[in-house]
Amino acid sequence: MLKRILLSGLISGLLTGLFMYFTAARTTAEQMLSTSMMQMMAMGYTAMLVAFIFIFVAMKRHRDIAQGGVIKFLPAFGMGLAITLVAGIFYAIAWEISLLLTDYQFINAYETVLLNAVENSGKTGEELETYRQSVEASLDTYRNPVTRLPITFTEIAPVGVLVSLVSALLLRNSRFWPRRPVV
Question: Following DSSP, what letter does each residue of 85-134 receive, concatenated?
């Protein structure tokens, strides 16, 4: 089971990490301003969902091969959470490597977008300055790798927990997608 957890987590984490490298990490400020932030987030979370198919596959293989076609909810859910943990760690490391390879271009582009939003927020005077300071404080927090790693992990973890929950609920029923004997 440990082998399935590590392999599935590695594959899921690296797939999402590579996707984020080729989309977000290499994004310039001009591209971010021209693309909807919601659209970029939807693409990222879709990539995570696709990569987390490996949670379902690992659980099903474990149920069908190692467990004789039966798995209880808690062991299946625990397996999914373990895969999520491994995937999240690899995702966070892949994101750090992506930022390093692109000379932190994403952070600079994100800063430009946020500060542009501050200027266009319609706030004036002291309210504008307070908003600008809060945005700059958030950016300073994100620039620090010690705080950025957990932030990055929390991007992917909820998706993995949700996929683990749904997969465990489905696969605890031995009649759901049963193993077909080889003919």
Answer: HHHHHHHHHHHHHHHHHTTTHHHHHHHHHHHHHHHTS---HHHHHHHHHH
